[in-house]
Amino acid sequence: MRKKLLILFCGILTVALLCSNVLIASATSLADSKVKATCKVTVVQKVVSVKLSAKSKTIKKGKSFTLKATVLPTNANMKAVTFTSTNKKVATVNSKGKVTAKKAGKATIIVTTKDGKKRAKCTLKIK
Q1: CA nearest neighbour of 91 among 69, 124, 58, 122
Q2: What is the pLDDT of residue 25?
Q3: What is the model's pLDDT at position 30?
Q4: Rg for the chain (alpha carbons), in Å?
Q5: DSSP of 52-120, one letter per residue?
Q6: Helix (H, G, I), strand (E, B) or coil at 45
Q7: pLDDT at 92
């Protein structure tokens, strides 16, 4: 019975941690009990937004530059992002944000977070 209560307490503690930054908890002493249980709690900080180092840029054909993606909050657990180009004939982008201008025209580079699918864009003009 005490083991079930301890497991239930761990479950409540987990929910409380996920719902709040502040946790006040108390438990009665189980020092006289021979039952032992452990509780592992992992707090997950979800991605709220992402931003790029530039919102727009004009570059010459054949030139390259790198866009930096900043995932917020800074303590988010999963900061993985993907980069895509809306017009690969005009500009390409690799997985690290390096943009290469292929020919004159317009394209948009989009960064998307894997957690929450948050997005940011950089509009390109290639001369």
Answers
A1: 124
A2: 45
A3: 54
A4: 24
A5: ES-SEEEE-TT-EEEPPEEEESTT-S---EEEEES-TTTEEE-TT-EEEE-SSEEEEEEEEETTTT-EE
A6: coil
A7: 98
Are 75 and 45 in contact by the 8 Å Cβ rule? The answer is yes
pLDDT value at 6 more than 70? no
3-state class (DSSP) for residue 34? coil
User: Which residues 6+ apart lie within 8 Å of 93 measured at CB?
Assistant: 67, 83, 84, 85, 99, 100, 109
Mean pLDDT for the stretch of residues 16-26 = 45
73 and 48 Cβ atoms separated by less than 8 Å: yes
HSE on the CB side for 72, CA within 13 Å? 7
- The secondary structure of residue 21, as a DSSP letter, is S
The whole-number average pLDDT for the span 4-16 is 56
